[in-house]
Amino acid sequence: MDSTQATKPAASVGFMDKMIGGKTLKEYLGIIKIPLLILIAMDVVQFLLGFVNYIPLLNIITGIISILVAGVSFLISVAIGVYIGYVTVKKHGGNLLPATFAGTLAGFLSGVVSGVLSFISGMIGAGVSGSGWGMGVGIMFSVMALILSPIVGIISGAVLGVIGGLIAGARKFGGK
């Protein structure tokens, strides 16, 4: 080897390039990008509907609409979680481990967004209540939503990912 050919040091593997179930985190984010954006959009719609509840004359109507939107959002969220597991197995050549991880990642990211939006909404609601008791309860529920939303997202995403993977025909968590 002459002096013009320098040897390159081995490239370190970045966080996004770590392999989980035969796929990198970048690949998982590519798989869940569109479904995750839909989940986040639904969270934002519910967040914005919550503000209309502070308008006294409209709160009965918007309360009914909010319940309907929450029910439809729940059904869509379940379908998206199953879809993520299905797509991971069927179109991206995975087994149950990648399907579970893809669902878990989507559930976690959606749960973080949902938790932050619930926290903001709860803090605004606590401020609107004006009483010490109402503010304390509002703050407590806001903090609980911030902590529990990602945890619930992780669990439900994992379960729905496995269900989607099973529907797609995967029967193993690892190996070929």
Explain what the structure shows.
- It is a single chain.
- The protein has about 180 residues and is mostly helical.
- The protein has one domain.
- About 75% of the residues lie in helices and about 0% in strands.
- It has four helices and two strands, in the order ββαααα.
- The protein has helices spanning about 25-50, 60-90, 95-130, 130-170; strands at about 20, 25.
- Strands 1-2 form a two-stranded antiparallel sheet.
- Strand 1 (about 20) and strand 2 form a beta hairpin.
- Helix 1 packs antiparallel against helix 2 (about 60-90), helix 2 (about 60-90) packs antiparallel against helix 3 and helix 2 runs parallel beside helix 4.
- The longest helix has about 35 residues, at about 130-170.
- The two termini are about 40 Å apart.
- The relative contact order is 0.15.
- The mean pLDDT is about 85.
